[in-house]
From TrEMBL:
<dbReference type="InterPro" id="IPR058163">
    <property type="entry name" value="LysR-type_TF_proteobact-type"/>
</dbReference>
<keyword id="KW-0238">DNA-binding</keyword>
<feature type="domain" description="HTH lysR-type">
    <location>
        <begin position="1"/>
        <end position="59"/>
    </location>
</feature>
<dbReference type="InterPro" id="IPR036388">
    <property type="entry name" value="WH-like_DNA-bd_sf"/>
</dbReference>
<keyword id="KW-0805">Transcription regulation</keyword>
<dbReference type="InterPro" id="IPR005119">
    <property type="entry name" value="LysR_subst-bd"/>
</dbReference>
<dbReference type="GO" id="GO:0003677">
    <property type="term" value="F:DNA binding"/>
</dbReference>
<keyword id="KW-0804">Transcription</keyword>
<dbReference type="InterPro" id="IPR000847">
    <property type="entry name" value="LysR_HTH_N"/>
</dbReference>
<protein>
    <submittedName>
        <fullName>LysR family transcriptional regulator</fullName>
    </submittedName>
</protein>
<dbReference type="Pfam" id="PF00126">
    <property type="entry name" value="HTH_1"/>
</dbReference>
<comment type="similarity">
    <text>Belongs to the LysR transcriptional regulatory family.</text>
</comment>
<dbReference type="InterPro" id="IPR036390">
    <property type="entry name" value="WH_DNA-bd_sf"/>
</dbReference>
<dbReference type="GO" id="GO:0003700">
    <property type="term" value="F:DNA-binding transcription factor activity"/>
</dbReference>
<dbReference type="Pfam" id="PF03466">
    <property type="entry name" value="LysR_substrate"/>
</dbReference>
């Protein structure tokens, strides 16, 4: 019998005044319970009980030992209950690292509704423009471009990878609109900031190939929101995700260009996924937040 169970048996014996009753409460026969307590006394080289044919009573050493281990076992039991509750009921702190632009537009606006439904969950949200993140070092979930390699993670698609080439109506009124992919070269383009190479926009061709256009312009940034704002202000063309500019297009604040010609910035074609570690029993706080995200997104997106 393991030492933890033996200590539980020891405390039950003191509480119930008999070895047989204590053993039954733990599913043990009187013989097995008595043998386990004898072995505990032998291991400790201490006499923990004064025994009679009808009753057992703790020795002074037994009472002192019980006083020390009882709070420890109670704390352990409470910790185990809490751990089970965190798997069965959404509770605790949910730590998320999310793609900044997506989170500001499609995660943060829905947090109040989640908190109302799951008041015992606290959200710790960090925003980033970095790619390639995975859940690690205390992070429960990442909301990122694409899926990580390997089988250690589960991803849930939140938004498509479709990008829209567009500009403001004011810009088009002043400078016109490109009629072909090559004509994009004649326009100022607002691009993601690249450290080591010039930005490239890729346009699909009818034969399944690709045409790469090295674009330039007056403004670049590592923030999609900054690029969107610059385009709304008429600074040039942008190529951003539909989930970022779809509302602007629908409202007429941005006008799609080269419709029907799929395009994307090099290395930015991936879809948005919520990613967490694979687990046989997913903590309830993660499962609840995944369900909340999926219920909040446009299924056609």
């Amino acid at each position: 019998m393991d030492r933890l169970t033996t200590f539980r048996l020891f405390l039950r014996t003191l509480d119930r005044g008999g070895i047989a009753a204590a053993g039954r409460s733990l599913g043990l026969s009187a013989t097995a319970a008595s043998r386990a307590l004898r072995e505990l006394e032998d291991d400790l080289a201490l006499r923990l009980f004064d025994r009679t044919t009808r009753h057992v009573a703790p020795t002074e050493v037994g009472r002192r030992l019980a006083a020390r281990i009882a709070p420890l076992l109670e704390g352990l039991d409470a910790a185990m209950v809490e751990a089970r509750e965190m798997h069965e009921e959404a509770t605790g702190t949910l730590r998320i690292v999310a793609r900044r632009s997506y989170a500001l537009r499609h995660v943060v606006p829905h947090l109040a509704r989640f908190q109302t439904a799951h008041p015992r969950v606290e959200i710790d949200l960090a925003l980033t423009e970095l790619t390639g993140l995975v859940p690690a070092h205390g992070v429960d979930m990442v909301i990122r471009l694409g899926l990580p390699a390997g089988k250690s993670f589960i991803g849930h698609r939140l938004a498509s990878g479709r990008r829209i080439l567009c500009a403001s109506p004011g810009y088009i009124a002043r400078h016109g609109a490109p009629a072909t992919a090559d004509a994009v070269l004649q326009h100022p383009c607002l691009t993601y900031r690249e450290e080591e190479e010039a930005p490239v926009w890729v346009f699909a061709t009818g034969s399944g190939g690709r045409q790469e256009i090295p674009v330039t312009g007056p403004f670049r940034s590592n923030s999609g929101e900054a690029l969107r704002r610059a385009a709304l202000d008429g600074m040039g063309l942008i190529l951003l995700p539909e989930w970022m500019v779809g509302e602007d297009v629908a409202a007429g604040h941005l006008t799609p260009l080269l419709a029907g010609l799929p395009s994307w910035p090099e290395r930015y074609q991936a879809e948005i996924h919520a990613v967490h570690a694979r687990a046989e029993r997913l903590p309830a706080k993660i499962a609840a937040f995944v369900a909340h995200l999926l219920a909040s997104v446009d299924p056609a997106g």
